[in-house]
Amino acid sequence: SDLGVVLVGFSGGQCKEGVDAAPTALVQAGLLDQLRDDLGYKLHGDASVRNYNEMKPASDEPHRGMKNPRAVSAVTETLASQVYEQARQGRMVLTLGGDHSIAIGTLAGTAKAVRERYNGREMAVIWVDAHADINTPETSDSGNVHGMPVAFATGLATSQERDIFGWLTDEQKISTRKLVYIGLRDVDRGEKKILRDHGIRAFSMHDIDRHGIGRVVEMALAHIGADTPIHLSFDVDALDPMWAPSTGTPVRGGLTLREGDYIAECVHETGQLVAMDLVEVNPNLEVAGASETVRAGVSLVRCALGDTLL
Ligand code: DIR
Ligand code: MN
Ligand code: MN
Ligand code: MN
To answer: Phi, psi at residue 62, to the nearest 5°?
Structure first.
């Protein structure tokens, strides 16, 4: 089957250099070759990694506390149309980031394509992450946009400035009712209030300890409902640093690699996956385990795209 691949070398949604090098590292580790040769995908899209860090507006002063707001906005607006272009042709879309701010663009692209292809239907989003990434500019302590993509994608954060996410239209937005989190363990106070106030379904590591990963994935998929197109946005920091140490904001007490792979396998099994993001792999951090982290990323994508153990 057909797979649109979008390779996003971008780090402007957070403060550490190196996360822009992830797509190259993942490709060099053989990910795309394996998808083609082992899993039988026909690949579409730019074969080379685009350096989105070069999309720098002349001036980019902080706005409502956001750092690099115009750069992140320009990158994600471009990405939205790149992803849409692939998705509207009925291709599954794989985006390799980059930091998680890029999901503002990828979700916008698939949400619009899904509405067009499925008679106005809303897609579901499974957000696998240690963090909720649902800060508004006003609740964020860091000003890093990678902590805000879900707020913009759901319309909980809005903007009047066209060049600072004001380009987002309603048809590009997602519903909080079809959003589900897995793996949370580092959620800011303001984010907890947002999750509570909007009744957003979230499975933390506590829930995984209590019910086991099998039951949690079952409940997450039941919440979404059968027959709903799914966008899987996978932050590698959902995995425990034991498995994925080379990431910008590691948090201990996370998923094992097998639990991460299991989530991805189950999403594949639904037959409803329309897009996947893999983000926050940073192969350049001064920690041991960069290659392990890249290999973990390769494994997660393979599982989501249909690799089986037997
Ligand atoms: C924190 C950390 N909640 C923030 N977020 C991270 O900056 O908004 N997201 N690391 O990936
Ligand atoms: Mn995270
Ligand atoms: Mn992040
Ligand atoms: Mn994230």
So the answer is: -55, 145
Active site residue 129: yes
**Which numbered atom of ligand 1 lies nearest the CA of 186?**
3
Residue that has been written with the tokens 């580092």 in this structure:
186
Q: How does DSSP assign 65-89, residue by residue? A: TBSSHHHHHHHHHHHHHHHHHHHTT
Q: Strand, helix or coil at 232?
A: strand
Task: Give pTM, 2 decimals.
Answer: 0.98
What is the distance, to the nearest Å, from the Cα of residue 2 to the centroid of all Cα atoms in its chain? 20
Q: Which atom of ligand 1 is nearest to the CA of 187?
A: 3
Q: How far is the CA of 67 from the centre of ligand 3 (A)?
A: 14
Neighbours of ion ligand 3 (CB under 5 A): 100, 146
Q: Which residue has the tokens 């639904």?
A: 270
Residue nearest to atom 9 of ligand 1 (CA): 147
The per-residue pLDDT for range 27-65, each reduced to its tens digit, is: 999 999 999 999 999 999 988 898 999 999 999 999 999
Largest CA distance in the chain: 53
Does the active-site annotation cover 100?
yes
As a dihedral over the C-alpha atoms of residue 300, residue 303, residue 309, residue 310, rounded to 10 degrees, the angle is: -170
Q: Which two tokens stand for residue 273?
A: 């996956």
